[in-house]
Amino acid sequence: MPPKSPFLRNLPNYLTMMRMLAVPLIVFVMLFIWPDFPQLREEKSVVESWVRVLRYVNPEGQYNEHLSFLAAMIFIIASMTDLLDGYLARKWHVVTPLGKLLDPLADKLMVMGVMVMLVPLGRLPAWMVVVVLTREISITALRAIASSEGKEVIEASALGKYKTIFQIIALSGLLIHYRDPYFKADFHNMGAVFFLVALFFTLWSGWDYIWKYRKAGANRRRSDR
Hints:
Layout (H helix, E strand, L loop, with lengths): L5 H4 L1 H21 L5 H4 L5 H10 L9 H28 L4 H22 L7 H23 L9 H19 L2 E2 L4 E2 H38 L1
């Protein structure tokens, strides 16, 4: 039964929006993993300093353990809201078309933002990021086309959920990055392996969505006859 409070009824959507707002925060923290600030102080002006920051590319993967861990924690906590908003929406029967559209969009923005920031740090190859971005943008465009044509929004399949789970695990490991001397855990290599698995599900779920879109279009043409 839906709660009486308007705030609680919209809480799943609010959590989704909070996940979207976490994206610039994660990017901001990751930005400061890059620069060598003592060198920036040698610049002649503040403008030149920030131009150096914005143009900074670090193929050696200059590493700040504390900021990397902070970025990973923000990412993990934001990702956990995905489970919570879905659970609350189903429990309270407040699943809405807006929520169906915003939920995958928030996931995509968060994942894509982290992946793009990991490339200049040398933790992800650019071609893998391009493959994932192409898939995500293409499927988002298909969802928008389906909505504009009056078709029912195609919900994410189990494959899409697996893709998201493996992406979250992979990116969390790549964000932490360091090798734990006590537990012998190499978070970077763990993240790299899980990212390959996520890439497989990314391509498979993309093809599955395209197939469902074509099938929905064919069924609608038959019903219009």
